[in-house]
Amino acid sequence: MLLISALLGYGVGEYRFWHTPAPTEQLGALHLVERAPASGGGNIGEAITAHLTRLVEEKKLEQVEGWEVECQGAKCRVTYTIKLVNQKEPQVAVWEVDLENRKISPQNGWAIDLTR
Prior knowledge:
Layout: H1 2-18, H2 24-35, H3 44-57, E1 61-72, E2 75-84, E3 91-98, E4 103-106, H4 109-114
Antiparallel strand pairs: 1-2, 2-3, 3-4
């Protein structure tokens, strides 16, 4: 039941994100991060989905806040946030994105672990 609830919540969040018009810069930054190569193979979007699946199976996932993108011109900050059971602080991955050069730069531990 928890697995179904978590995946449903993730799906609703993804639906809301993809069906809400976003500025070109924000969408471009998100695509660069999601499609960037992941350290474990595949891309970062796939790595996050696999991580969420493991957490749900282990009953450690409380909430998925998902993606957030903030841009100032061609410089963007992309974050992905989840809340784990019995943890006060959420788990957050943060990347800085340079749209002009199409480069992403992981900014914290989880983002570094995810990014090749």
